[in-house]
Design brief:
By secondary structure, the chain is mainly α. Helix content is about 80%, strand content about 0%.
């Protein structure tokens, strides 16, 4: 049995248990409704869920641009410079150790309770692990590649684009997985705390009403977002496999003119 078959089998077992345990009375439906009940609630209120999903998607996509794009860019710049690594990495590591959710009231005070505070909070939440992962990947690059690129006339920008970026793709994508997942978590958590729209708002509202089926219906949408993002990262990983190999062979007569 292949690993893929094992993963699908485990997923099937979990789905069967999700349906069977509440139906058999082993777990109270208040704590865990049946899978079919959650899916039915999702279908019956699909218009409401779709409208709120669009709100969450908009916030997630904007936050991903800042968190992942900014994290990769800053990670490359900081990781490629010894001075910047010594100055910035300890600070970034210290900030990452702080549970940022406790600082969310500050974000609402600075940016209000609208989408802006959710986007900024989620951007910061996802930026730090992306930055740290990218900077760590830069430090694993074979310095002979950088030396060869410099001897062939590559300036700093060309070295980053033609050597650092291709060689760090696996580490960067691993960092993106973590950073992107935290962006989704950050948006949903922020919506649960202060919001009048979004999937997190629905989770908080239905939790207050003790409507477990609708709570889990909203949770299923969050899981869908996380799985979809991971699938996109895997697609990018497959598409950039050739570029990664070319970056590892930069010194084999490549031109930087």
């Amino acid at each position: 049995m292949t690993p893929a078959h094992v993963r699908w089998l485990l997923l099937l077992v979990l789905l069967v248990l999700w349906e069977a345990l509440p139906r058999a009375g082993v777990v109270p439906t208040l704590f865990l409704p049946t899978l079919s009940g959650s899916l039915l609630a999702l279908w019956q209120d699909k218009a409401e869920y779709f409208a709120n999903l669009l709100v969450t998607l908009n916030e997630v996509l904007i936050a991903l641009i800042f968190a992942c794009g900014g994290g990769v860019l800053l990670g490359l710049v900081i990781g490629a410079s010894g001075v910047m690594r010594r100055l910035m990495l300890p600070l970034a590591s210290s900030l990452f150790a702080v549970p940022l959710v406790v600082l969310y009231p500050l974000f609402t005070a600075w940016f209000g309770i609208g989408s802006e505070s959710k986007i900024v909070f989620a951007s910061v939440y996802g930026l730090l692990p992306t930055l740290l992962g990218t900077a760590a990947g830069v430090q694993t690059i074979d310095h002979h590649l950088v030396t060869v690129a410099a001897s062939m006339g590559a300036n700093r920008r060309q070295q980053i684009l033609r050597v650092y970026v291709p060689a760090t793709i696996p580490t960067v994508l691993a960092a993106l997985r973590i950073g992107g997942a935290l962006v989704i978590v950050g948006v949903v958590v922020a919506e649960m705390l202060t919001s009048s729209a979004g999937i997190g708002f629905l989770i908080s509202r239905y939790r207050t009403l003790l409507d477990s089926e609708n709570v889990f219906a909203a949770i299923l949408l969050v899981l869908f977002l996380a799985i979809a993002f991971d699938a996109i990262v895997q697609f990018v990983e497959r598409r950039t496999a050739g570029w990664q190999r070319s970056g590892q062979g930069t010194g084999d007569g490549a031109s930087f003119a």
